[in-house]
Design a protein that fits this description.
about 325 residues; Beta-Lactamase; two-stranded antiparallel ribbon; Arc Repressor Mutant, subunit A; alpha+beta; elongated; 8 helices
Length: about 325
Amino acid sequence: MAWHKNDAQGPDGARSVSKSTRPQGQVRRFRTSSKDGANGESTPSYPPVQAICRALDVMRAVNMHGVASVNDIYEETGFPKPSIIRMLETFVAEGYVVRDRMCSGYRVTERVRDLSSGYESVSQVIEYSRPLAISLTQETNWPSAIAVIDGNEMSIQFWTGAISPWSSESLIGLRASLYDSALGRAYMAFCPEDEREERLVAMRKDPNINLTAEKEAAFRDLLQKVQVDGYAQREPNTWPQRRSSVATAIMHEDRVQATIALSYFTTAVPANRMIDEIYAPLREATRKVEEMFAFFDARRGGQSLHADQDVPEF
């Protein structure tokens, strides 16, 4: 696939998006985390503000009860009732809670949806897969990338190069081709058939791909092989040729939620060791992410977990 010379590409053939062509809302490129791979989720830089923690506990109690009295919240939290009332009245003043006199309690309002408006499916995928991608790099030393579909390309949303000894530049915000990148090929192989056909139509119109009938037939054969093998590999002739990438699809409810890849030097991992050293740990990480989707869906839906269903290790 021919990219323009000014298109910077990453190890999986991903290219950067210039300021003029970056879609609105595109994540800016920056280092994914500190060198130890943590972003402070479990080890905050400063002690938490206890007043905010208590207010959030009160909000959770109101939301859990549907309509909650002060006594309900007191039994749930143990906070002094005068403090509960002050926090509730603050929420009322800000429009997040309303006092329902008919039901003798407080309930949340539509405005609480504003608090989750930035939490979309992409955020959920990263939340579930991020710790496993970090563990994957810690286990193999190779950098891993997580990408989601964005238009007719894959957008890299998370990258562990900061904790890999074999990578330095961040790939966050780069875009990978559906045609010749491992991330894109994994998506194309496991997305629904009707979607795959629509994307192939778009590829035929893309002058950068130049999808002739002969190339399309070969690409369809390749996708069938990916479906059988369970993983995709990037086109060997794409830059940089000293690297390769293997990607798998993170599936949930028969749809591709994201694709995840490991990038490695071909001189360090010969073809006869790729399955054991690259694909096996990648497949295990993918399986655990898929288990997380199923686990949290069951919790949200109030479903009981099967007796033989293990709780994922987070």
